[in-house]
Amino acid sequence: GENVEQHPSTLSVQEGDSAVIKCTYSDSASNYFPWYKQELGKGPQLIIDIRSNVGEKKDQRIAVTLNKTAKHFSLHITETQPEDSAVYFCAAWKAAGNKLTFGGGTRVLVKP
Amino acid sequence: EADIYQTPRYLVIGTGKKITLECSQTMGHDKMYWYQQDPGMELHLIHYSYGVNSTEKGDLSSESTVSRIRTEHFPLTLESARPSHTSQYLCASSDWAAYNEQFFGPGTRLTVL
Description:
The structure holds 2 protein chains of 2 kinds.
Chain A (H helix, E strand, L loop, with lengths): L3 E4 L2 E5 L4 E7 L6 E7 L6 E7 L4 E4 L2 E6 L4 E6 L8 E8 L6 E3 L3 E6 L1
Parallel strand pairs in A: 2-11
Antiparallel strand pairs in A: 1-3, 3-8, 4-5, 4-9, 6-7, 7-8, 9-10, 9-11
Chain B lengths: L3 E4 L2 E4 L5 E7 L5 E7 L5 E7 L6 E2 L7 E2 L9 E3 L8 E8 L8 E2 L3 E5 L1
Parallel strand pairs in B: 2-11
Antiparallel strand pairs in B: 1-3, 3-8, 4-5, 4-9, 5-6, 7-8, 9-10, 9-11
C-alpha cells in the first residue's frame, strides 16, 4: 500500500519567516496530494491541493510543489503569522485505493 | 449550512462501558470515514463506508464497530471500553468526485478510566 512520510515533525519559525514542510510517497500511482491544517480542538481542514499533472500551485501565502519523478511534494508558507500555528498533514490519494493516506503531521509554531 | 457533526465532543467513562460516538453530515456525501488520532498527531483510518449498508475496516485494527443505515449517519460503537481506547476520534465525509476533499468533524476526545 501507499506510505507517506512527512518532515519535520515540529517546526518553529519567527513571524514573517517562511516555513517548508516536505513529504514523500511510495506509490507512483498516487495522483492527488492535498494538505490539511488542524487547529487546536478542531478537525483537519483542506488548505490546498495539487494534482499529478501540475508541478506547482499557489494560493496567497501558501504554495505546494510536486516532483513526480522523485515522488515528493512540499508545502511552503511565506510571511508566516501567529494564526498559521497548527498541525499540518500532507496526504496522497490514488483511484485504485480509493482512500487518502496521511503523513505523520508537522506541528508548526509561529513565534511573534 | 452543510456541515459534519460529532457528539459528544468529550467523553469520560469507566472500563467495561458500552459507548457510541455519533457522526452526522448534511452534505449528502456517500463516503464516510472514522479516524483515530493518537497524541503523536498521526491519523489512523479505522473504518470507512461507501454508502448505505457498506462498511469496511481501515488500515488500523480496531475493536470498534460501525453501521451505515442512513446516508447522513455513521455511528461508531465500542461494546466494552478499555483504557487502551483512550484517544481522539475524527469522523469525515467526502463525495464520489475523483479528487475528493474530505470534510472532518471536530472530533470526540474519549477517555476511558
